[in-house]
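Lab meeting, item 3. Inverse folding demo.
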């Protein structure tokens, strides 16, 4: 049974990826420092290590103790706005610590990685939908850390017997059984809209209604977290045979912030009052994936990524977990 290390396993996407890997018959070592994730999001059937990916000696020890076949690397800080105001923690956590993980893998002979990258590597795109060969030009430190990790992985592949693929997710959404989105603070639109509908917040802050888009609000490509997890399972199986080093994970269809709010209001059967705020630093007007390469090369198709289902699943989870994950 292949043994996969999942970093960021206590986070939203990491816990769903873990669930999908276990279902596929893999064994999982869960790694997370719990700086942002939740202990209760860690799966029972996995062995959990509370360590940072920046702790080289602790990682070496793990790789010596367990024969890890591949690492699915999701650990990281994820807030674009925070990365603009505090680039130091983003470069330290996402890039420096990410490189420490790579060094440890190399030292210990672990040579396979699936890396959680992001649409943020494209910056403000000059075409939409965005294909993978679009120039890499991030407009915020978060996206820059992802782009630099992708480069390091590519050079590892050139120099060493090292196989990797970067999955550039667009906007993860939805929920999966007992797993939901509980970022603190929450910066993502769908959970915040739901929190307003559930009366946990008075209004929803809408950042920017003067973008060059049809209704003036930013357009994003939302993809169900279960579809993202499935992309990891398939990418692991095909590692070493994929023609590209990076793939978009999206649906090819974008929704504006106002459209998402309208859908959330319909799904939750509640009004969602909005307060318009200035644009957030580092937020491009439109990010929609050309996701055809992942479909062609990997046979991946998004099965659950209709906007209604993503909002419904998220709503169900938030309704059933009034205070999010227990224990913080
Ligand atoms: N959520 C999205 O829409 C989205 C979109 C594109 C890319 N991504 C990427 O996917 C990954 C997972 O995102 P998420 O939404 O699940 O975020 P999350 O915050 O829910 O999970 C990230 C996890 O990483 C852990 N972590 C952070 N730094 C760590 C470190 N140094 N050592 C060990 N653990 C550490 C946190 O404690 C947390 O549990 C991230 O790398 C993110 O950049 C997410």
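The presenter then showed the designed sequence:
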């Amino acid at each position: 049974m292949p043994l996969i290390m999942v970093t960021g396993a206590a986070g939203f996407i990491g816990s769903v990826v873990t669930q999908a890997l276990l279902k596929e018959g893999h064994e999982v070592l869960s790694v997370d420092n719990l700086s942002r994730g939740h202990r209760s999001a860690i799966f029972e059937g996995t062995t959990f290590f509370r360590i940072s990916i920046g702790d080289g000696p602790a990682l070496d020890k793990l790789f010596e103790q367990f024969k890890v076949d591949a690492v699915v690397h999701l650990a990281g800080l994820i807030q674009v706005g925070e990365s603009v105001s505090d680039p130091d923690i983003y470069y330290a956590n996402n890039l420096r610590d990410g490189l420490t993980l790579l060094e440890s893998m190399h030292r210990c002979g672990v040579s396979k990685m699936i890396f959680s990258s992001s649409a943020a590597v494209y910056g403000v795109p000059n075409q939409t939908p965005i294909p993978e060969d679009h120039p890499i030009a991030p407009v915020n430190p978060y996206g820059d850390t992802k782009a630099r990790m992708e480069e390091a992985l590519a050079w590892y592949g050139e120099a060493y017997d090292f196989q990797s693929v970067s999955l550039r997710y667009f906007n993860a959404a939805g929920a999966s059984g007992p797993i939901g989105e509980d970022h603190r603070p929450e910066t993502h639109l769908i959970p915040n809209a739901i929190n307003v509908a559930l009366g946990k917040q008075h209004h929803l802050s809408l950042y920017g209604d003067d973008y060059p888009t049809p209704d003036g609000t930013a357009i994003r490509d939302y993809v169900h977290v279960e579809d993202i997890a499935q992309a990891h399972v398939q990418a692991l199986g095909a590692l070493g045979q994929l023609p590209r080093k990076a793939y978009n994970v999206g649906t090819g269809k974008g929704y504006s912030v106002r459209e998402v709010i309208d859908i959330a209001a319909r799904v939750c059967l509640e009004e969602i009052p909005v307060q318009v705020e200035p644009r957030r630093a580092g937020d491009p007007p439109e990010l929609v994936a050309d996701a055809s390469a992942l479909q062609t090369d990997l046979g991946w198709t998004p099965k659950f990524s209709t906007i209604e289902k993503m909002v419904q699943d998220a709503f169900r989870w938030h309704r059933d977990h009034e205070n999010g994950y227990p224990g913080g």
